[in-house]
Design goal:
With 79 residues, this protein is mostly helical. Helices cover 75% and strands 0% of the residues. The protein is elongated.
Length: 79
């Protein structure tokens, strides 16, 4: 989780876009968990793995309008 928060801050300060930072943090959280957890899809770890993957998918779905603006180069920035 700390790595995801750090990634969120880095992306936010680099891009000044909260939506991009949120998408990056969700992705970082899943990737870090998959790398750090041996056998992440074993029955022991499967509930957490599914929770993170599904949660990240919900973040992406929730930000779909932002993704369209990011791709079009029209997403608003802070500051």
């Amino acid at each position: 989780a700390a790595l995801a928060v750090a990634g969120w801050l880095v992306v936010l300060f680099a891009s000044r876009m909260v939506s991009l930072a949120s998408l990056a943090a969700a992705t970082i959280l899943v990737v870090a968990y998959l790398i750090a957890t041996p056998a992440a899809f074993s029955p022991e770890h499967l509930p957490v793995t599914l929770y993170l993957v599904i949660g990240s998918a919900f973040v992406a779905v929730k930000h779909r309008a932002n993704v369209k603006r990011l791709l079009a180069g029209t997403e608003s920035r802070i500051g």
